[in-house]
């Protein structure tokens, strides 16, 4: 009896220890096949045998009385990339507008300091939270977003931070310093990257600014080429077109929410879903541009999500 208890105990400790040491994720540089193929085989969930919610529950925090398109594009992209349920946490003024764009989204009109308990209830449901599209930059919004970031840290929620969410970070870069695993993927464009860099350097941090937040925070700088900084660094410049439609960034951040959630379940590092999403967005752009040329819009890109997914990953 005592012996079996000891065996059990030692099994338990060794299990805990390996689990600690195994906090390693599969990264791009250790794959011996193309990232797209690896992603399709090991990260994209199978369609059979899943229950509603298994393929991802994403929360998008965004929108304001001025901006309703950005949170819509992010949320619908998360859904079209393959998540089961997408919640939009937005202001009372933006909610009816976003609801009228789409019956596919669950829209909560509770993005206000006076309903923080309701915000927390929605955040708890998320596999990944996408923060930023269309938030605006009023001081009230900056303050509320900072509180949301702190709550997400306590809940250890994986985050994608984009657009005005990055503005909040640039106001106080310590907000997400040493954020816990699975971590954060920030997706600035060149301008946003510039002010994040400036804010980090103002803290007296003179190394590569992208490393400031610690081992679980990665940065994808979007542009004519997309550059990733994390455990690995890489750059993609093929695919896409010269035409950049407003809303393209929201398509990327929303889809990344879905892919990041899948990657975490498959124990795959953040660089893999980020690579996959950069490819997917560029393919949406390329296919939509071939059909619409200069008149291409973000909505045209959304319609190509399935074709782009097949092209990049060879699966439906
Ligand atoms: C970097 O690698 C470490 C060890 O494998 C892992 O814990 C961490 O989550 C990785 N970071 C990202 C952003 O994937």
Automatic annotation (TrEMBL):
Signal sequence bounds: 1-18
Pfam families documented for this protein: Carb_kinase
Protein name per its UniProtKB record: ATP-dependent (S)-NAD(P)H-hydrate dehydratase
Binding site for ATP: 222-226, 240-249
Record-linked PROSITE patterns: YJEF_C_1, YJEF_C_3
Role summary: Catalyzes the dehydration of the S-form of NAD(P)HX at the expense of ATP, which is converted to ADP. Together with NAD(P)HX epimerase, which catalyzes the epimerization of the S- and R-forms, the enzyme allows the repair of both epimers of NAD(P)HX, a damaged form of NAD(P)H that is a result of enzymatic or heat-dependent hydration.
Reaction(s) the record says it catalyses: (6S)-NADPHX + ATP = ADP + phosphate + NADPH + H(+); (6S)-NADHX + ATP = ADP + phosphate + NADH + H(+)
Limits of the YjeF C-terminal domain: 35-312
Keywords carried by this UniProt record: ATP-binding, Lyase, NAD, NADP, Nucleotide-binding, Phosphoprotein, Signal
């Amino acid at each position: 009896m005592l012996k079996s208890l000891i065996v059990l105990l030692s099994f338990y400790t060794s299990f805990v220890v390996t689990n600690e040491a195994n906090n390693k994720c599969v990264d791009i540089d250790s794959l011996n096949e193309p990232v797209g193929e690896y992603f399709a085989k090991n990260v994209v969930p199978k369609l059979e045998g899943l229950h509603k919610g298994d393929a991802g529950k994403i929360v998008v925090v965004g929108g304001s009385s001025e901006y309703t398109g950005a949170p819509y594009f992010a949320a619908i992209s998360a859904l079209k990339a393959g998540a089961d349920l997408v919640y939009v946490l937005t202001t009372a003024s933006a909610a009816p507008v976003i609801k009228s764009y789409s019956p596919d989204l669950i829209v909560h009109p509770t993005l206000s300091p006076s309903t923080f308990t309701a915000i927390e209830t929605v955040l708890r449901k998320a596999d990944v939270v996408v923060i930023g599209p269309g938030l605006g930059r009023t001081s009230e919004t900056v303050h509320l977003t900072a509180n949301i970031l702190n709550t997400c840290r306590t809940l250890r929620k994986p985050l994608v931070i984009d657009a005005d969410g990055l503005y909040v970070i640039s106001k106080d870069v310590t907000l997400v310093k040493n954020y816990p695993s699975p971590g954060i993927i920030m997706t600035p464009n060149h301008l946003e990257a510039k002010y994040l860099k400036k804010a980090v350097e103002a803290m007296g941090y003179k190394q590569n600014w992208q490393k400031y937040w610690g081992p679980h925070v990665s940065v994808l700088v979007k542009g004519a080429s997309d550059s990733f900084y994390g455990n690995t660094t890489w750059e993609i410049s093929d695919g896409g077109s010269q035409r950049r439609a407003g809303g393209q960034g929201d398509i990327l951040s929303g889809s990344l929410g879905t892919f990041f959630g899948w990657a975490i379940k498959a124990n795959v590092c953040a660089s893999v879903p980020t690579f996959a999403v950069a490819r997917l967005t560029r393919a949406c752009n390329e296919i939509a541009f071939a059909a619409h040329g200069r008149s291409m819009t973000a909505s045209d890109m959304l319609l190509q999500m399935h074709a782009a997914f097949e092209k990049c990953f060879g699966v439906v």
